[in-house]
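User: Sequence recovery, please. Input:
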């Protein structure tokens, strides 16, 4: 009998093409997603060396970071820099025979949203993209992580990647989530607990009753932010929820190929007794809705909490850095989180821009009105999410409440397009990063779940969604 293995061990080993004595491996890559920011030099490299894309059919390109989310975008991108990047991807995809979703394609959207939607992301696969939040796809029980531009070129040319095996971490979330507490709160709580470096050197597998109970959307939210906890990737073993989501997606296997795939996917579980180098256990029942107060995703507190006092931190470096975060955020220790007033609300991103997120928002805001001092926008994660939301009439609810309903893209998750905060503007955001300047120069970001962002838009300040009526 071979030793019990983790899910990560299994997927990794099934993809090893070559292993050197020092442990360096060459891994076969099943799927490569490409966006406009990290691919131009990679394609240029191929051009200069006269190489082709090894497997265009395993590669999918889309524009997301630089696209405008204004309905005007069908008339062309105004920002020169953005236009150049978008046009470069369109040309590279054409020249190298790679399928490409332009901003006018209904299937266009944030790269980590369109992969699962198309059935391009499947269990058991190795998936890479020149983007850190590629960890999202781990929700399908796929080994998925971000790579740098030189690696993008390597994968384009060879369909392989040089990797060393990471360590195994298990994060088990037991029990049931209280009403109003979501996948976003789980992952923010985990990062709060382990810190942004807690996952360094590990691939995290999420398990436990609360994870099993999540929809695919919720699982993607969790895996998406694994990278904010420092991990190489996040994984959730595929189960009936996964299979039901994947079935009949455009690129999912069909007929006999589906049956064969399903048989293999069912073997992709961590074995009983498999060794994890680190184990973290959380009780879902004890989790509150969470709000970030600082400039790192580990700076989190319960919505019922207060802005912490850095003076209470004994480590000097940490104290100084948290003091700086508070200064940047313009917050005073001891302030109740629910007393923090907002200027902007951003609902979207690859963390929380899917249909389930928009449904949660609609439930909170239906028949209500956005606070007069808040400017609030909702950006669907893809054209298909937008289409679905409109078919369900969600856009009407949003617009009636005073939200701006936009075209799909990364939008104000990061300030690479027209959507950005002005200096000192304070924003409740469903995205994944609250770094300094992330949503615009001197902009102030608070990370929250979609329902919490929605309620904050209406109230004009944070509110405990568990008390929402
Ligand atoms: C622009 C891109 C390379 C970047 C990433 O790698 O994650 C972006 O998507 C982000 O979220 O910061
Ligand atoms: S939505 Fe945000 S986190 Fe996701 S890929 Fe775009 S910029 Fe990165």
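Assistant: Recovered sequence (469 residues):
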């Amino acid at each position: 009998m071979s030793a019990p293995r983790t899910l990560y061990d299994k997927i990794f080993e099934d993809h090893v093409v070559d292993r050197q004595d020092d442990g360096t491996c060459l891994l076969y890559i099943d799927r490569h997603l490409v966006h406009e920011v990290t691919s131009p030099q990679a394609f240029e490299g191929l051009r200069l060396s006269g190489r082709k894309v090894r497997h265009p059919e395993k590669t999918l390109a889309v524009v997301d970071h630089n696209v405008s989310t204004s309905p005007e975008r069908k008339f062309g991108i105004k920002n020169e820099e953005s236009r150049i990047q978008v046009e470069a991807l369109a040309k590279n995809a054409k020249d190298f025979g790679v399928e490409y979703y332009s901003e006018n394609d209904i299937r266009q959207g944030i790269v980590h949203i369109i992969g699962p939607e198309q059935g391009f992301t499947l269990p058991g696969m190795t998936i890479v993209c020149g983007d850190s939040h590629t960890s999202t796809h781990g929700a399908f029980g796929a080994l998925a992580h971000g790579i740098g531009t030189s690696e993008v070129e390597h994968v384009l040319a060879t369909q392989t990647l040089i990797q060393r095996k990471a360590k195994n971490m298990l994060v088990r979330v037991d029990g049931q989530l209280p009403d109003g507490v979501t996948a976003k709160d789980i992952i923010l709580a985990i990062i709060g607990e382990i810190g942004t470096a807690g996952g360094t050197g590990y691939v995290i597998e999420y398990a436990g009753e609360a994870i099993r109970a999540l929809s695919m959307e919720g699982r993607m939210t969790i895996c998406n932010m694994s990278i904010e906890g420092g991990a190489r990737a996040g994984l959730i073993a595929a189960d009936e929820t996964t299979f039901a989501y994947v079935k009949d997606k455009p690129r999912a296997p069909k007929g006999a190929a589906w049956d064969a795939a399903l048989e293999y996917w069912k073997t992709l579980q961590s074995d009983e007794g498999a060794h994890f180098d680190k184990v973290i256990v959380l009780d879902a029942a004890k989790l509150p809705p969470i709000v970030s107060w600082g400039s790192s995703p580990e700076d989190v507190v319960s919505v019922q909490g207060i802005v912490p006092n850095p003076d209470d931190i004994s480590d000097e470096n940490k104290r100084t850095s948290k003091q700086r975060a508070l200064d940047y955020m313009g917050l005073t220790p001891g302030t109740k989180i629910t007393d923090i007033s907002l200027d902007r609300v951003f609902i979207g991103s690859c963390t929380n821009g899917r249909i389930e997120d928009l449904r949660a928002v609609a439930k909170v805001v239906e028949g209500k009105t956005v606070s007069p001092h808040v400017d609030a926008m909702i950006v669907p994660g893809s054209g298909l999410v937008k289409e679905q939301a409109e078919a369900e009439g969600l856009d009407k609810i949003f617009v009636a409440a005073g939200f701006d309903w936009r075209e799909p893209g990364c939008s104000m998750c990061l300030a690479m397009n027209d959507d950005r905060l002005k200096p000192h503007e304070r924003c409740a955001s469903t995205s994944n990063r609250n770094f300094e300047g992330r949503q615009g120069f001197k902009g102030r970001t608070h990370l929250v779940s979609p329902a919490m962002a929605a309620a904050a838009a209406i109230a004009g300040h944070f509110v405990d969604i568990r008390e929402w009526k």
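The mean pLDDT is 97.
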